[in-house]
Design brief:
alpha/beta
């Protein structure tokens, strides 16, 4: 399921109609605005937000620079893009880092929003930036919350400060801060209790912790799939705690996206991060301009490049490029690249970041069979190191053994080998062309066929 899938499809269809006209009349603009309004409302965007958005776009679209332009359709797309970026927050809202460590980040939210998991994801994000986070387990309300955070911390190699449930959240928070200062942790991320609904006891507890910790950031974790309820929750928390930003989880599971498009305008609080999956590294910095670009089918190449850079080691990539140029690319290399691709996320998500996918019916409707990648992995894993490095030695008996070990057939193995040889030949040709022009491949991770 693509983020903003249904909204993106409808907007792109509207823009396709506009681009097909040589000149635009006022009635063309009005019709387009009607379609955009319906698309936004169906995407569960707040009614008042839709009204303000349409008004701003229409006012600009009826201007002389659009109606008398040689490319009026493109001009309207640009206006919608500009207004979408403004609606989403204009620019990236960075985490405020304290001049004197530790930076204290307090996470709050209702039960079920993914708060404890997000504490770990945020900790891993800062760890990747070379910082030393400490996670504090201050949720003493929910059974097993402390244990959950400890398991999360162990899985990503981060320390967790915890006390028994007989303690109080306020005491744990204060001791956690002291521990961070003593151990030289420059980031303290505090997990707090949630409820199934907003109540005064919850808010009292959070206000006391805020007063004791004086946090640099108070981030509200909200579930994008709850739609306008997420916006209402954000408004209530902001009124009580004066939150500094939001982390929107499960955005990858919400095809409508109304909450993400409404929350900044309604609450005034920026979205700082979005959760795009269950894995510990599936937390992305929220860039309004990149998200607007995805919605309008223009892709998101910057995020795609950043994912590739984080997934692939530069030295390994250079070495692989050299082997490719010498036609030494092996199934072992192929397997390594597959592992790198898996780190970047699902293939469907990656394809949706490519420019033009939204308006290309063949690409947009293409289904990615992730099981094929698993089958390829199983086949290569069942080979000996020698067979991976020199697939020419794979005779009939070896293929039978590999098929039995991988739960596949000899036909599957032959198909993989044929595709691998074709890909290797194509990549060698592309590599030769790139070297002739630049002296460097500059391929994204060197992954065959990507």
């Amino acid at each position: 399921m693509a983020v903003f899938g249904s909204l993106a499809t409808k907007l792109q269809e509207t823009f396709r109609k506009l681009r097909g006209k040589g000149k635009l009349s006022e009635s063309d603009i009005n019709e387009a605005m009607r379609e955009i309004r319906l698309a936004l409302l169906e995407a569960d965007v707040n009614f008042k937000v839709v009204k303000g958005f349409i008004s701003a776009v229409k006012e600009r679209a009826l201007g002389v620079e659009v109606l008398e332009s040689l490319t009026p359709g493109q001009q309207v797309v640009k206006i919608v893009n500009d207004e979408l970026v403004a609606l989403l927050g204009s620019t990236e809202s960075k985490i405020k880092i304290a001049p004197k460590p530790p930076t204290v980040i307090m996470l709050c939210g209702l039960q079920g929003a993914g708060k404890t998991t997000t504490v770990g994801k945020l900790g891993l994000y800062f760890k990747g930036q070379g910082r030393r986070p400490l996670l504090a387990a201050c949720d003493l309300q929910r059974p097993a919350a402390i244990k959950q955070l400890q398991v999360v911390g162990d899985s990503i190699g981060l320390p967790v400060f915890a006390k028994s449930v007989d303690s109080t959240p306020l005491a744990v928070a204060k001791e956690g801060l002291a521990q961070a200062k003593q151990n030289g942790n420059d980031i303290l991320i505090v997990d707090t209790a949630g409820r199934l609904h907003i109540d005064e006891n919850l808010m009292d507890e959070l206000r006391q912790m805020k007063a004791a910790l004086n946090p640099d950031e108070i981030l509200l974790v909200v579930d994008a799939m709850t739609g306008q309820d997420a916006v209402n929750v954000a408004q209530s928390f902001h009124e009580s705690l004066d939150i500094t930003g939001l982390i929107m989880t499960k955005l990858d599971g919400d095809a409508r996206g109304g909450a993400a498009l409404s929350v900044k305008s309604v609450t005034g609080c920026p979205i700082k991060f979005v959760g795009m999956g269950e894995k510990s590294d599936a937390l992305e910095v929220f860039y309004p301009e990149r998200m607007a670009s995805r919605i309008l089918g223009m892709g998101d190449m910057l995020t795609l490049i950043e994912k590739a850079q984080s997934a692939y080691d530069e030295k390994q990539t250079k070495a692989m490029e050299e082997r490719l140029m010498k036609a030494e690319f092996t199934l072992e290399d192929f397997y390594e690249q597959m592992q790198g691709m898996k780190k970047m996320g699902s293939m469907q998500d990656l394809i949706n970041m490519l420019p033009g996918v939204g308006v290309n019916k063949a690409l947009k409707n293409a289904t990615i069979d992730e099981t094929l990648m698993k089958k390829t992995e199983a086949i290569i894993q069942s080979m000996t190191p020698q067979e991976r490095r020199s697939n020419s030695i794979l005779n009939g008996s070896r293929k039978k053994r590999i098929a039995a070990g991988s739960g596949t057939t000899v036909q599957d193995i032959n198909k993989l080998l044929k595709q691998f040889e074709q890909t290797k030949k194509m990549m060698k040709q592309l590599g030769g062309m790139a070297k002739g022009k630049k002296g460097n491949l500059n391929l994204p991770g060197g992954f065959p066929g990507f």
